[in-house]
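User: Show me a protein chain along with its predicted structure.
Assistant: Here is one chain, sequence first, then structure tokens.
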Amino acid sequence: MNRLPPLLFGCFLIIGGCQQATTDQQISALKLESSTLETRQLQSRRFETNNEKNILAACAGVLQDLGFNLDESSAKTGLLIASKNRNAVESGQVAGQLILAALVAAMGAQADPVWEQDQKIRISVVTTPIQKDSIIVRATFQRIIWNTKDQLSRIEPINDPTIYREFFDKLAQSVFLEAHDI
């Protein structure tokens, strides 16, 4: 009986598993979901000014006031990236892990409880002039979380309207004060 070597058989499985996406799949992948517009509206504000440099300076000031450190900036491309480190420990998660470890230990096995420990909150701000006297400011927040073993636990967007409202309210005040030299 003639058998295929395992490596060759594995290659056939991999190649056979590769399938071309249908036209419908390709089209649906390019369609925006209904929540996309809501998210973009949450993340964006229009400012009636043509001074992108002042908008970026106001954004940097607001971020620093909110406890962020500027990581990257490019006035030429209208980009700011900032971050701040925070504790990510949640007592419920720790308690759950410790209870689970105690149950496992009671059954005679060894447990190694792990929970989320540290997080970095990041924000990227992009400015886009849209007319001769208007600039769109788009901010996106995200959390990067590490566990007690210093392993990346998760990365997730932050879509809390309160956070965006606070940022844009402070930015609007700052832009107003700068425009009136106050």
